[in-house]
Amino acid sequence: MTLPPFEGFYAQHRDEVYAFLVRRLGRERAEDAFQETFLRALRAYPKLQHAEHLRAWAFTIASRIVIDEHRRTRPEADLPEVPTEEGRPAFAELEHLADQLPPTERAAVVLRYGYDLDYADIGAALGSNATAARQAASSGIRRLRKEIT
Amino acid sequence: MTTVSHELDRRFRDAAARESLLDVAYDLVDTPIGTLLVATTNQGLARISYDPDPEREVERLAHAFGVRVLRSPRPIDPARRELDEYFSGSRRTFDLSLDLRLLADFNRRVLRELARVPFGEVVTYGELAARAARPRAARAVGTVMNRNPLPIVLPCHRVIGANGKLVGYGGGLDRKEALLRHEGALL
């Protein structure tokens, strides 16, 4: 599957990404975050290797921006920011660890435990629902445990 | 459901162009001969399309110029203004820079010659072939006209058959006739 023109990607995902940002940041801050999300997506878009999971990809970028935004405004907040040995934040470490998982499980694990999204948001990102997202995340975690131990 | 407002959408589309992140910006432009899809790259005007299905044209643009194709009105404003002036009768030549880099040499040469055919005049396929130093290539010139990426601005409507018939036009003969009538080349 080749990448669709950016217009198609944007038109398809702008409303759900915006709704997610409004839930996370409130309407006022969501507007800047929305623009930043799609500008970042636009910068990275030609480097994508395939057109799978574009929706999860868009939500991943949006989630990163939400985290940055929380850090900026509430540096003391208890965000998923557990330092690791290499000093990388939890979500970066997880993305690396989860590399070997099947794509849906990987996306579910990273969005849940790296970005702290709830299952409804993850379901939306994956084009399924909260139940399917919970299942994908837990089977991903089971698989990770097996690989790590 | 929470949806993106028109203002926010427009803000993003403007910012994408302003930050030079687009391979192609396009918009729809209303004219007396129908709605055109007009597209531009950072090198200049790249496409004017009569295709009523913008999605198909956007796919073609992405294939030709790169996937970062976005509807963004601002970069199209100069072309929109010149087209408005042309159709309102206050403009006879276009001053837009053109992006013809993807065309074959022969097509580019023929289109450069075509650009010299003045407002209100016509030329035959054979004459245009001769001007492009390929006097026997009238049929090939016909093909170049048919694939002209920038109709109106590159005036392929001014090219007619040796017998005076209009012959053909990518946007349909009605449009060719309307354009020639607008220029006073047809009574």
Notes on the structure:
The complex is a heterodimer of chains A (149) and B (187). Chain A is mainly α. Chain A folds into two domains: 1-79, RNA polymerase sigma factor, region 2, helix turn helix motif (Rna Polymerase Sigma Factor, Chain: A), CATH 1.10.1740.10; 83-149, Winged helix-like DNA-binding domain superfamily/Winged helix DNA-binding domain (Arc Repressor Mutant, subunit A). Chain A is 70% helix and 0% strand. The relative contact order of chain A is 0.11. Chain B has 187 residues and is an alpha/beta fold. Chain B has two domains: 7-88, Methylated DNA-protein cysteine methyltransferase domain (Double Stranded RNA Binding Domain, 2-Layer Sandwich); 105-182, Winged helix-like DNA-binding domain superfamily/Winged helix DNA-binding domain (Arc Repressor Mutant, subunit A, Orthogonal Bundle). Chain B is built from seven helices and six strands, in the order αβββαβααβααβα. In chain B, helix 5 (125-131) crosses helix 6 (138-146). The longest helix of chain B has 13 residues, at 6-18. Chain B is globular, with a radius of gyration of 17 Å. The A-B interface holds A 3-8, 10, 14-16, 18-19, 22, 31, 34-35, 38-39, 42-43, 45-46 and B 1-4, 8-9, 11-12, 15-16, 19, 21-23, 55, 58-59, 61-62, 66-71.
Which properties best describe this structure?
heterodimer, A: 149 residues, mainly alpha, Rna Polymerase Sigma Factor, Chain: A, 2 domains, globular, B: 187 residues, Double Stranded RNA Binding Domain, Arc Repressor Mutant, subunit A, two-stranded parallel ribbon
Q: Can you summarize this structure?
A:
The complex is a heterodimer of chains A (149) and B (187). Chain A is mainly α.
